[in-house]
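Board notes (copied after class):
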Amino acid sequence: MKRVLEGKTAIITGANQGLGFEIAKKYVEAGANVAICARNKKLLKKAQSLLRPMADAGQRIIARHTDVSKISDIKKLVGYVTRELGHIDILVNNAGVYGPKGVIEKVDWREWARAIDINLYGSILMCRAVLPAFKAQRSGKIIQLSGGGATSPLPRISAYAVSKAAIVRFVETLAEEVKEDGIDINAIAPGALNTRLLDEVLDAGPGKVGQSFYDRALKQKQSGGTPLEKGAELAVFLGSSRSDGITGKLISAVWDPWASLPEHLDELSGSDIYTLRRIVPKDRGKTWGGEQ
């Protein structure tokens, strides 16, 4: 994986801390020019200052304060990166929030909708902003952070679950739209991470997130969780030419043999492997329920 992104330019959203910052580090190590963005200006400036010493001569690390839920911010970000770095090859949509915790009828609706704005609409808006350039150059990689909220219910954290499931179907759909344009788009499930989002769950307490989810979060905190580099390494792979042709998939950084996926490209293409699909009775060995 050494220098597999040499000469490439990547935008990484929500990259001032946690997984986003780890992805930015791995991208710098892999040789990319990196543009990071986030809402917190102070943390963003600190992240940039930490990344710059990791870069080789000729590599550039730039940063811009951006709220991905605002179209005007996104236009300014993409314009700035294009002017400063010449072109964009990779987009990593990492920016995200948990949103409010609690039962749906009691949570603050504005906070719930705000989580959708950031996690879902923000990612879609970023894709819309880079796609014209990607289509013009007939190449591009989009990596979307998703997670457990896409594949299983998350009671009391519904905004997060809804946005993460919706974005995976968007990834599948967009992959079909751009399959003739040389653009690959995939989603990553990075595993159970010990980041600020986990701290939010613990701070909220079992009364808001539910006792079982709280207990799992506490156990995860104590065990250390999934190392951030697992998701970051998968993000590098999906941004590199090694993953060419792999598209429209939700890939687990922890459980899936992603490094060997190029060996199975023919089997992956056109199949529903690593996608969200409806389970019917016959999938579970039942004889009732019809064929669809």
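Comment from the instructor: The mean pLDDT is 93. The CA atoms of residues 144 and 187 lie 4 Å apart.
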